[in-house]
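> @MW can you paste both from yesterday?
MW: sure, first one:
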Amino acid sequence: MKTCYFQGTFNPPHNGHLLIAEFVLKNTEYKEVVFVPAYKPPHKSLKETNPFHRLNMTKLLTENKEGLSVSDIEFQREEPSYTYETVKNIAKDERPAIIIGDDAFDKIETWYKTEELKKIVDFILLPRENGCSEEKLKNLEEKGYNYRRLNMPFVDISSTQIRNLIEKNLPTDGLIPEKIRRYADENNLYKHADR
């Protein structure tokens, strides 16, 4: 089965993430999207108690959604979550794809073991504000980065926006499923300095 992986901090996971995964399933040959929450993202600082809450909320997001699942592989290693290491360990017998914003793809050459990474994965690019230019995309393709751009409308939902709303005890209707908001409230997430 052709699988693609959707990595992120998912802090918290939201309806935008769900729309992206469902769009990939409907508009590509991939039959499964596996969410891979980062245990310790190398480029972001997160509170140490947060990782398992993020994993649990991501499981809630994908619960009962056909073709969507969650991997805790990065939690098994408990070290910085580098894409190359994750893909090498998770995808043994196939050439998988990674869902990535074209803004992140713009910096792909700075990623850990990027030369090795481009040999083992394809990239599914999603539109972002201030994303990769056409010239840069062509340049990356010439360097051996195999990608496909999805013509998906920009989803204007951010985890930062949701954290701010929860901190102020404001509604998050339409941004995250009610069960994730309930989980965040029950576990006192995103109140005060827990960001």
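MW: second:
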Amino acid sequence: MTVPVKRIKGGNVKKARGKVARRGAGVKKPSLSVQSRSKSAAKSIAKAPAKTASLKSGPKRATAPLTRAKRQVAALKAELAAAQVRIDELQAWADTDFLLNIYNRRGFERELERSIAYIRRYKASAALIVLDVDRLKPINDTFGHAAGDIVLKGVVAVLMRHVRSSDVVGRLGGDEFGVLLWNLTQADAVAKAQALEDAIDRLTFVIKGHSVVAGASAGIALIGPNDVAALAMEAADRAMYARKNARRGRALAAT
């Protein structure tokens, strides 16, 4: 069966075309807002690696304060070490007789206290010798204190030659010296004190064209685990004066 075709006449063609045009105008183009959103999405995708990079660099920035703190701690430790060295130097100066380069009384008594603590802990023993230089005052009065200093240096040289590296030598004041000797019996201590006296008695000094001799008197105190430093010093000092009086008596008898 044939479908009849309706023909559009003349002016109706223009109307039909206008309707088609109007229908085409009804289809909307993508709006600018949609385009801008798509562009911003593209930009955000492009920026995503940068954010990832910033996240990766985050821990490095976080460790920066820790690194600075470690440097500050290291600097403070270095300052503390330098201060401790300075304290040790001042301590040594406070305990040293600078004329003779040995312990002064303060340093010697400190070493004696430490030694007695060791003796008490390990049941060791030691001998303390207090030695007084004879005739030093007449030498100072006749030739001056510079001459007395020469005699004192000669006495210290003798003491250092007759002791071991573990022993302690100090100047107790003026013309008096202390010698701490480890692990000696009473007989050994007496023999050592006698050897020191003999060596110092043999010393001869030429001062301003004059031959000068001094001499020394030594007293002994044995130290055990139950002894106290101050009492040991007093005992050795009394023994030294007793020895000095005995030597002076023999010298007078010889004249």
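> thanks! Residues 32-94 form the longest helix (63 residues).
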